[in-house]
């Protein structure tokens, strides 16, 4: 599948402003970007499969547990603290977030899988704050529970899948798979308020996100087992890690902004048309 999505033909689509079509094309480029594994392999010069072969027995279960715990803490953070004033210097904030996860990645690179239960929640929390800033830049009102949950939803967006076809993108397939849990969690928060992250409905939502996020965490863990790494390599891996989810967030919240303007059906159809023309 080609990921060289550029723009709509000059004729555009009826009723769409040219700048919005350009924004949708840019979002599609981000969301159909090569997977985290591909980006890590390109950065490290080594396929992730070599790291996976070196991971200890039972590592998948540990990664799943660490991913769910990290997301549970991220949800608590989202419900309690994100939604403050938008950053006056968003580009500086992104750089600071990148520097912070580089530091946690250095710990992960030095201590490997043993450090994952400690390092991953810190890294995920930093990434969540970066994602929240991106959401605000696209007009999201983080006082709304659904917008906060959309920040957590970003961790389930991993880029294109080999199973993608012309009818459906990995991005919209992921959103469709999460729609039920997302709607249930959002309704609960509207009714009960923002102070109960351990409620069963929210735990179920986190578990659905963790199923997808743990794939990316597994790839990160495998990359840290590539022999040439250590602390410096771990920092590099985490920079790639946050950059990947920042890309997903920029695309995701641009799509959501356009959905608020044109409707979900129209944006989804336009996105599918754009992807079809790029093949």
DSSP helix count?
Answer: 11
Class per helix and strand makeup:
mainly alpha
Helix % is over 70%
User: What does the overall shape look like?
Assistant: globular
Describe this structure in words.
The protein is mainly alpha-helical and 279 residues long. It has one domain (34-278). Helices cover 72% and strands 0% of the residues. Helix 2 runs parallel beside helix 9 (200-224), helix 4 (59-80) packs antiparallel against helix 7 (145-153) and helix 9 (200-224) packs across helix 10. It is globular and about 55 Å long.
Features:
279 residues; mainly alpha; 72% helix; disordered N terminus
Outline the secondary-structure elements.
Blueprint (H helix, E strand, L loop, with lengths): L17 H14 L4 H9 L3 H7 L4 H22 L9 H22 L4 H22 L7 H9 L16 H23 L7 H25 L6 H32 L1 H15 L1
Helix pairs in contact: 1-10, 2-9, 2-10, 3-9, 4-6, 4-7, 4-9, 5-6, 5-10, 6-7, 6-10, 7-8, 8-9, 9-10, 10-11
